[in-house]
């Protein structure tokens, strides 16, 4: 670069053109554009404000962590400085120059020669302290370094482990909190479980040591009922309970097995068990799901025609993992004929052995069986019946046009800024009602101070009205973490009969003023061993090593997700026992000899939220179960009674009463049922008043 020379004229380069005549399709290919020159002959920025502009054709590297604020890139054209003046600046990094230095190149060498004399000579303590502080004074920290240290202090996960699931829970967001929170796996991280302060919490068994029953059908039943409850306006199926699914499909009970992870509970004996029995509810659900997969406008009445129509679509829709085998094996290779090397100087790079290719081969397909076409669900094994209903639900999500349009419309409203999580839970249930109300007060204060346009959703409002309502686990009851697990209250319910709703609506419903509409189904309280599930998924999908550093080969088959589910309670009596058990473990009731969870423990707050939710919902469940029993008894055919003549004499009525012997109890049940119906009629007025 010659400053005295005349600068070259900057034009519009056409280096990509080989000739002067532009091609005929240049306008369609958009080749007439200016390119940013790689070098500039002035001090103007190449990019950003004040630059000449143009298109940048150099590739932008991916995976590179960039700065928060991009600075303008300028060429380092500055006034020429002599190296004699620039040299002392380099010396300041190692040691401070003396005041008598003349700035020559020999100044640092002269100071080095005087160093041994200074070490021998004794100086006053004050001077040595001053010189020591000057020499050891650190450099000024930049703003980027301060931000990096703040991130390190706020982040909880120091290193990853075999059960670490990275998420954005610790990321600072400008979005105000709402009625839903992300469902994460932080409390199942081995780094948290292995901490010394969490040793007692890590020793807890599943469900805090409460007797549980292993239930391999819980995962599929929970998935089916949550699908029916979430898309009830499209499916239009009456409420069914987990007990009705198990009994309607004739699922066999699982025997209790001794284990170190949980305290086993004996299974209830099943009377008159018949493997071939299929309830009418399960038959109608089977027909309804097949109609949704086939996009039938009318209801399916014959399973044979629907099975014949689904038979050619099975391979494209996909069979479940239980009915297929993965033929790709990690330890099998096949020879590949060598080809011509790309680089003749390195022919050793040519690969002659590759992994043996394979495909997923079906091992069981009920749609090709003649018995299934003739008898339907009765032709399958009990476990395969439940798998088939789960598969039909999955197929309907990908093929039913009504469901796809509903999901598409809901996805168009997800305009909230910030990161989106895979699954969400209700803030009021996962964090507690008090946390939701306190968060509302804090969010309103921040919303009033902010001047930018930000969307604010009340943290105490109904989570099912949120734009991410499809991603919400409606049946989640609590998430304690560690080896204790994640709790689900499996049933079909809506906001009018005790289901998920706003804090105000749930509080009024639990108090007894919201029993309007249809009764919910019966329930079952399940718990999932999430830590065990993460360990098994690592064994199949991840890479694990032994203590000596050798890699452990992955298993060929997928882990069975049903082995990590357990049943805690199936009726009000068992649920009441579990709530009392939690009360003793928290120190509310019982004696000091009980194993009380300390308030400083990491599991105390999630345990407290689980106890508050179940204890608040328990009185409503007791009333609903009592009313459902009354309705069942009322629907049963009564024995015929001998009817005599009616005597209208007042004296006879006063002597014998209005009821015959043995009929007072039945009439009392009828009066109680009539009072419940009157309460349903009066509920509409209460709802209008609450709104």
Automatic annotation (TrEMBL):
Q: Where is this region: Disordered?
A: 1-155, 633-691
Polar residues: bias regions? 20-31
Q: Where is the composition biased (Basic and acidic residues)?
A: 99-126
What spans are recorded as compositionally biased (Basic residues)?
Answer: 1-17, 127-142
The secretion signal range is none
Q: Where is the composition biased (Acidic residues)?
A: 660-691
* Protein's UniProt name: WHIM1 domain-containing protein
The protein's organism comes out as Suhomyces tanzawaensis NRRL Y-17324
């Amino acid at each position: 670069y010659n400053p005295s020379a005349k600068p070259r004229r900057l034009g519009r380069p056409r280096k990509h053109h080989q000739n002067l005549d532009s091609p005929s399709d240049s306008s369609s290919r958009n080749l007439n554009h200016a390119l940013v020159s790689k070098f500039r002959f002035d001090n103007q920025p190449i990019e950003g404000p004040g630059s000449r502009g143009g298109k940048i054709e150099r590739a932008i590297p991916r995976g590179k962590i960039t700065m928060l604020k991009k600075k303008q890139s300028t060429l380092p054209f500055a006034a020429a400085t002599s190296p004699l003046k620039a040299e002392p600046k380099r010396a300041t990094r190692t040691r401070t120059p003396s005041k008598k230095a003349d700035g020559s190149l020999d100044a640092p060498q002269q100071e080095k020669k005087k160093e041994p004399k200074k070490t021998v000579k004794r100086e006053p303590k004050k001077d040595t302290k001053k010189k020591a502080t000057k020499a050891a004074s650190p450099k000024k920290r930049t703003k980027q370094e301060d931000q990096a240290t703040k991130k390190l202090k706020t982040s909880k996960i120091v290193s990853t482990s075999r059960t670490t699931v990275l998420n954005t829970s610790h990321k600072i967001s400008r979005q105000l909190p709402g009625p839903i929170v992300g469902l994460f796996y932080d409390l199942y991280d081995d780094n948290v479980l292995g901490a010394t302060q969490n040793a007692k919490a890590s020793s807890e068994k599943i469900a805090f040591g409460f007797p549980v029953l292993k239930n391999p059908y819980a995962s599929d039943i929970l998935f089916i009922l949550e699908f029916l409850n979430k898309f009830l306006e499209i499916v239009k199926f009456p409420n069914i309970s987990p007990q009705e699914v198990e009994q309607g499909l004739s699922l066999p009970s699982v025997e209790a097995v001794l284990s170190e992870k949980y305290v086993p509970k004996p299974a209830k004996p099943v009377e008159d068990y018949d493997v071939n029995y299929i309830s009418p509810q399960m038959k109608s659900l089977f027909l309804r799901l097949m109609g949704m997969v086939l996009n039938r406008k009318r209801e399916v009445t014959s399973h044979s025609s629907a099975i014949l129509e689904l038979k050619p679509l099975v391979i494209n829709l996909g069979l479940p993992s239980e009915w297929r085998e993965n033929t790709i094996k990690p330890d099998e290779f096949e020879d590949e004929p060598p080809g011509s090397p790309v680089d003749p100087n390195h022919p050793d790079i040519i690969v002659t052995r590759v992994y043996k290719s394979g495909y997923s081969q079906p091992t069981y397909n009920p749609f090709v069986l003649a018995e299934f076409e003739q008898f339907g669900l009765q032709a399958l094994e009990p476990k395969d019946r439940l798998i088939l209903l789960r598969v039909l639900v999955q197929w309907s999500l990908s093929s039913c046009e009504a469901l796809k349009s509903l999901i598409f419309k809901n996805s168009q409203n997800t305009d909230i800024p910030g990161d989106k999580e895979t699954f969400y839970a209700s803030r009021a249930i996962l964090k507690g009602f008090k946390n939701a109300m306190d968060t509302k007060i804090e969010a309103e204060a921040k919303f009033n101070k902010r001047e930018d346009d930000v969307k604010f959703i009340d943290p105490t409002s109904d989570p099912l009205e949120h734009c991410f309502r499809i991603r919400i686990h409606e049946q989640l009851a609590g998430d304690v973490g560690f080896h204790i697990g994640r709790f689900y209250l499996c049933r079909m319910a809506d906001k009018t009969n005790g289901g998920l709703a706003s804090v105000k609506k749930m509080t009024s419903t639990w108090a007894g003023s919201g029993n309007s509409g249809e009764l919910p189904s019966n329930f079952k309280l399940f718990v999932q061993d999430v830590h065990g599930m993460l360990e098994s998924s690592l064994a199949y999908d991840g890479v694990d090593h032994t203590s000596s550093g050798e890699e452990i080969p992955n298993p060929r088959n997928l882990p069975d997700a049903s082995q990590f589910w357990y049943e805690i309670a199936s009726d009000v009596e068992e649920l009441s026992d579990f709530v009392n058990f939690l009360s003793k473990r928290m120190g509310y009731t019982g004696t000091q000899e009980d194993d009380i969870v300390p308030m400083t423990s990491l599991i105390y707050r999630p345990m407290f939220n689980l106890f508050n939710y179940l204890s608040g919902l328990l009185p409503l469940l007791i009333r609903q179960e009592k009313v459902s029993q009354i309705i069942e008894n009322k629907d049963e055919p009564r024995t015929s009674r001998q009817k005599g003549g009616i005597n209208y004499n007042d004296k006879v009525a006063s002597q014998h009463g209005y009821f015959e012997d043995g009929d007072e109890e039945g009439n009392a049940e009828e009066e109680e049922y009539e009072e419940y119906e009157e309460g349903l009629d009066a509920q509409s007025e209460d709802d209008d008043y609450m709104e």
